[in-house]
């Protein structure tokens, strides 16, 4: 009676800032085991953003990161070293889901994109939430939620019609997208539970995954 709906689900989070981590927060809050991989050289932007506890700037004092981090584990890992990549691959073997919210090309540079992940674990699920998609003319354009506010026209819906668009002062899309991303992720987990196939040598065996 005390178990939570996502207990037994294991996720490795390569995401940062808001959209990716908030997606996994929904699952972590309900029992999933989430390991956040952080860079010791390039900390998450939210670790260096206000508000700070007691107004003291520190990577462990920021309110935004604290909001997104409960019920998650954290591991500092340098993915620009062979040792760091090896640890990441071991975590992929352990995980059900790999999440990424970097600009397209970053995971590919580390050989941790989906095509390489399925070579490590055949039934792995990957969810990616880059700023402007994985393909298309603007896919390589870096940006945050505030940029998307302007591109999708939200800033034109506020303020007065005879004046310039007004910034919302909040990355609105960063709090909207995770609802859809979490639903898509839950759907992928359910689909895998019902339809997972594993290849063993020359034959296929259909297995049903049951999460207690």
Instruction: Characterize the biggest β-sheet.
Output: 5 strands, parallel
Helix content: 25-40%
Poorly predicted regions are 198-212
Structural category is: alpha/beta
Write down the overall mean pLDDT: 83
Radius of gyration: 19 Å
Beta-strand portion reads 5-15%
How far is the N terminus from the C terminus?
11 Å
Side-by-side strand order of the widest sheet: 3-2-1-4-5
**H and E string:** EHEHEHEHHEHHEE
What does it look like?
- With 212 residues, the chain is α/β, with parallel strands linked by helices.
- The chain contains 7 helices and 7 strands.
- It has helices at 19-28, 63-68, 82-94, 106-109, 114-120, 145-151, 172-195, and strands at 10-13, 33-38, 72-76, 97-100, 125-128, 197-200, 203-206.
- The strands form 2 sheets. It has a 5-stranded parallel sheet, sandwiched between helices.
- Residues 198-212 have low confidence and may be disordered.
